[in-house]
Design brief:
Amidase signature (AS) enzymes; single chain
Length: 469
């Protein structure tokens, strides 16, 4: 696969997989200071052209790197990701760092506590090098906020990085970090992963404790990794997964790396190019079909199937999303309306007016969707579909440009991700499968059975290896 325009050509220890970076630091092959220094250098360069970071933690990251090298020199025990640089989304609190949620409503908030997901990464020895851009309150599939402006695509800066974890995707795609933290409530990890050519995983609900929302009972929100490769996503999941009383919905299921078995031989996959109702860009369909043929050549059985879904899935997910925005961010309007994204204000107002009975009835659609998937999983190990219906749009476009029913009845939608936030227990992986003829990346979405995150990552590893042949 071609590399994004910012990525370095010279091999550096930073370009190794995360576990190999840690091994090299632990054995003294190179230093954490050298790795973190290069990560910060790339972050500065990328930020000038693509606007991926809100904060670059120059002093803090270098101090952590030097402290890491001192521990290694003394032979002290270090974590499995010692010295590995990573980035965190501006939505996620980190102690001592400006955290704005892409919004002027947070003024200059500096949290006094770090979110559990980030604490677990740091406890493993990983070093936070910066905070990444997000649209206001992570509401959009385009990373463009009133506070930080537009984040651009590393393959073509005229195009969007996607959102809402757009800055994290750019940081990974350009080689600044091997993985970055993102959040996914309607595709916000998988959409930018697809547009920027990275791995992106929405884990099963509860595999990673979700601790940054006012309510621990929300059921569409997930932390997830954006990563350069499956191995780096596995490294992330190995460290951050597992139960915690900070999230009552977290699952007592430790991540089992041994289950990430990379073989396609005899595996059965259902393929739906459109989930029953999307219009798919021809260059996306071509890329998906090429990946499917590579899977078949590796021994996989792939059958095209029909799903009886419609645009109602997206519309009712949007209703849930508007209520979410209203409940958690609606109090910002009275004091900050004139400095907020007008689309955010409109969503909050829509959510405030939504009927509670209609909100509850969304569960009927979600139930019907689950029954369709449960029947599908009786015959197949996973569902394949595009992550997004299009390659990265121009950065000047908006979500509203992808909310139309076309004359032929097809849905002109941006992504095929939010249906699997309606079914949050199903892990959904976006895997980069190469570039379309327009030079922009395409992602294959692999949706697995309930809580089968390891298996889905294993399928991703096998496809990744097959495409590299």
């Amino acid at each position: 696969m071609n590399k994004p325009m910012i990525n370095e050509q010279a091999r550096h220890p930073l370009d190794l997989p995360a576990v190999e970076i840690a091994r090299g630091i632990r054995t003294g092959a190179f230093t954490a200071e050298a790795v973190i220094g290069e990560s910060l250098r790339r972050a500065r360069m990328v930020n000038m052209s693509l606007n991926a970071f809100t904060v670059i933690r120059e002093e803090e990251a270098m101090a952590a790197a030097r402290a890491t090298d001192a521990k290694v020199a003394l032979g002290e025990t270090t974590g499995v990701l010692v010295g590995v640089p990573f980035a965190a989304k501006d939505l996620t609190p980190t102690k001592g760092d400006l955290t704005t949620l892409g919004s002027w409503t947070r003024e200059n908030w500096v949290p006094e506590e770090t979110a559990l997901c980030i604490r677990r990464l740091e406890a493993s020895g990983a070093i936070l090098i910066g905070k990444t851009t997000t649209p206001e309150f992570a509401y959009s599939s385009f990373t463009n906020s009133p506070r930080w402006g537009t984040t651009r695509n590393p393959f073509n800066p005229e195009h969007t990085s996607g959102g809402s974890s757009g800055g994290s995707a750019v940081a990974v795609a350009t080689g600044v970090v091997p993985f970055a933290e993102g959040t996914d409530m309607g595709g916000s990890v998988r959409i930018p992963a697809s547009f920027c050519g990275t791995v992106g995983l929405k884990p099963s609900l509860g595999r990673i404790p979700m601790t940054i929302l006012p309510s621990t009972f929300d059921n569409i929100s997930h932390f997830g990794p954006l990563a350069r490769c499956i191995d780096d996503a596995v490294a992330f999941m190995t460290v951050v997964s597992g139960p915690s009383d900070e999230d009552i919905s977290s699952l007592p299921i430790p991540f089992d790396q041994e289950k990430v078995a990379s073989s396609l031989e005899g595996r059965r996959f259902a393929l739906s190019l459109d989930l029953g109702y999307y219009q798919i860009q021809p260059v996306v369909e071509d890329a998906i079909r090429r990946a499917v043929e590579a899977m078949r050549s590796a021994g996989a059985i792939v059958d095209e199937v029909a799903l009886p879904w419609s645009r109602a899935v997206n519309d009712q997910w949007f209703d849930l999303w508007c209520v979410f925005m209203s409940a958690y961010f609606g109090d910002a309007i009275s004091a900050h309306c004139d400095r907020m994204d007008p689309n955010v204000v409109a969503m909050i107002e829509r959510g405030s007016a939504f009927n509670a009975t209609d909100y509850k009835r969304v569960e009927l659609l979600r139930t019907a969707m689950w029954r369709d998937m449960a029947m599908l999983f009786q015959r197949y190990d996973a569902l394949l579909c595009p992550t997004c219906a299009v390659t990265a749009p121009l950065a000047t476009e908006t979500d509203d440009d992808y909310m139309a029913t076309l004359p032929d009845g097809r849905f002109k939608g941006l992504d095929l991700t939010c249906p699997f936030n309606m079914l949050p227990q199903l892990p959904a992986l976006s895997l980069p499968i190469g570039l379309a003829v327009n030079g922009l990346p395409v992602g294959l979405q692999i949706v697995g059975k309930r809580f089968a995150d390891e298996e889905v990552l294993g399928y991703g590893a096998a496809v990744e290896a097959q495409l590299a042949c």
